[in-house]
Each structure stands twice: as C-alpha cells, then as structure tokens.
Amino acid sequence: NQLPIKSKTITRKKRWFTYFIFQCKGYLAIRQRKQKDIWQGLNEFYLYESEKAVHWTTENVLEWLEQQLGIESAKVKSISAQQVQQLTHQQINGQFIHVILPAVPAGLKCLDWIQEKQMGSFAFPRLINGYLEAIPNKKAS
What we know:
Layout: E1 13-24, E2 27-32, E3 43-44, E4 46-50, H1 58-69, E5 75-79, E6 83-86, E7 90-100, E8 112-115, H2 126-134
Parallel strand pairs: 1-7
Antiparallel strand pairs: 1-2, 1-4, 2-3, 2-8, 5-7, 6-7
C-alpha cells in the first residue's frame, strides 16, 4: 500500500516554426493568432509550420517564396539560428527569416502591415520577443 507510484510522464510534442519577417518600405507584416492553440490573441509574423526541421538557405527560401506565395522578387536579409522555447507540453523550435519585398504581393495583403516604429504597441510571444531583443536597435530592420 505504501509503494511509490510512478506519475504520468508528460509527452512533449515538438513543433517547428519558421517565421518570415516580411518588410516592405518601412512596414512589417504581422497577424494575430486567433485559433485555439498556443499564444492565442498574441501577434506573430507570417508562420510556416513544418513537421520537422527545415535547413533554410537563401536559395531554398527564394524558391519556397515563389512556389508557395507567388513572390518572384525578394531579398533575403537574414536567416536566424534555431531558437527553442519550452512550454509545458510542447517544445517550440523557431527560426526567423527576414525578407525584404519591393511591393506587397497579393498573397500577403491579408496580413496587417504596420510601421516598424509601431512594433512596441503589439504583444508577441516570448520566442518572438527574444529574437527581436537580440537584433541590434531592437527592431526587425
């Protein structure tokens, strides 16, 4: 009756998020997370979630942008290292790709385009805030 009982082990799901920071003429594209999932109500950049880690290079980013979003003209400014945020039941592996666009493509007009100086007015998850704080000048430009 007094033997220790092993409690349930928490199974942690791993998720891979690639955030595309789209910048166009002083504006950045964001959206609010509305679905019932982590970080509901917080803002984020354009999200691509994959089932496993993706090794991004400038070449395959440009190819992906053209194939998935129809973006033919873009400049990849930077690709961050993989970052991790541990939640109770999930491990979020995030990576940030900063893309400069000459114009807002039709496929991204549904996003909220905000001025870079307005970034501080919006709430973001800790993973994104950590990335933004590590950038010189603390903004995405």
